[in-house]
TrEMBL record:
InterPro entries for the chain: DD-CPase-like (IPR052179), HAD_sf (IPR023214), VanY-like_core_dom (IPR003709), VanY/YodJ_core_dom (IPR058193), Zn_M74/Hedgehog-like (IPR009045)
GO process annotations (BP): proteolysis
A GO MF label: carboxypeptidase activity
Lineage, highest ranks first: Bacteria, Bacillati, Bacillota, Negativicutes, Selenomonadales
Protein name according to UniProt: LD-carboxypeptidase LdcB, LAS superfamily
């Protein structure tokens, strides 16, 4: 199931409840191009634009609601398990569990209190024609007109550094970053989209700094870099308050990357240049370089232990 951001808008309302009154922040989960569905409480699961029977209420006389196309409908009181079952069967709805601190929700008190960020506004207008399987390596050059058609948004990492990135890639990167943060691991954007012109500058800089042999191993020829796609993400680590972005120091963080890499496919990413595949990818091991291909494809590639060079045959 596709994941959706739950913080596109924040609303605060005095939610009237048959058993209690409360005020709480509520997130609207939304898919681009469709009306919002309200998600109450600490929603950790996926939220789609389907209708839902809402459960997870500790009160026996639980009520259920649907908010779709900006209409709120109270569906009445009944035992939560029975009501959920009936609604799911009758309407083909999915059932999700929410926090157990609310009952009936009345929509008239809900007010928007925070506008979406510019990145989220731009995400709403993203180009659906992006080829998430675009294949670029040392022998496959990016199409000359790709960059001109690529939708990009401007985002910042936690240090305030700006990057350009394809919208859906950023959406899923943020989900990955949040999941890792819950495990005590902090990752940040370090390098994302680079134009062909910028790649030429990097080749010159790295050749001067590290030498031609290093550049051959780690730096793509302009026009042949995944970073031109907007779908590739190089990360840095923050460990004990220290930024780790040096390649050798990053490679040394084996324990941290051993926790990061198994999570990549869940959020649509693959490790693009893994160990043992150098003869296929043409690059040495880069534990920091992730490529967005979408969740379904990422699971296929990672589950089979493949790299794109093998998968695209």
């Amino acid at each position: 199931m596709q994941r959706y951001r739950h913080d596109d808008y924040l609303v605060r309302g005095g939610f009237k409840n048959k058993n209690l009154q409360m005020n709480k922040v509520t997130a609207i989960a939304r898919e681009i191009g469709k009306q919002p569905v309200l998600a109450f409480g600490n929603l950790k699961d996926d939220a789609s634009m389907l209708n839902y029977a809402i459960s997870g209420n500790k009160y026996k006389s639980a009520a259920f609601f649907v908010l779709c196309d900006d209409q709120t409908r109270e569906l009445g009181d009944m035992d939560k398990a029975e009501k959920c079952r009936q609604l799911a069967v009758q309407n083909g709805w999915n059932t999700i569990s929410m926090r157990d601190d609310f009952k009936t929700i009345y929509g008239e008190d809900i007010k928007r209190t925070a506008a979406p960020s510019q990145a989220k506004k731009e995400l709403a207008t993203k180009d659906k024609s992006v080829d998430y399987m675009v294949f670029v390596n040392k022998t496959h050059k990016l199409l000359d007109d790709y960059e001109a058609k690529l939708p990009l948004i401007t985002v910042k990492n936690s240090f305030g550094k700006e990057f350009q990135i394809e919208p859906e890639t950023y959406q899923h990167f943020e989900q990955l970053r949040t999941a890792l943060k819950q495990k005590g691991i902090q990752i940040e954007l370090d390098s994302v989209y680079r134009s062909v012109a910028r790649q030429k500058e990097i080749v010159a800089e790295f050749t001067q700094k590290y030498g031609a042999d290093y550049v051959k191993k780690y730096v793509a020829v302009p026009g042949y870099s995944e970073h031109h796609t907007g779908l590739a993400v190089d990360i840095c680590l923050v460990v004990d308050g220290k930024i780790i972005d040096d390649n050798d120091e990053m490679i040394a963080q084996k324990e941290i990357f051993a926790q990061i890499h198994p999570l990549l496919a869940e959020y649509g990413f693959i490790l693009r240049y893994p160990q043992g595949k150098e003869n296929l990818t043409g690059y040495s091991y880069e534990p920091w370089h992730f490529r967005y291909v979408g969740q379904e494809t990422a699971k296929k590639i990672s589950g089979a232990g493949l790299v794109m060079e093998e998968y695209m045959k």
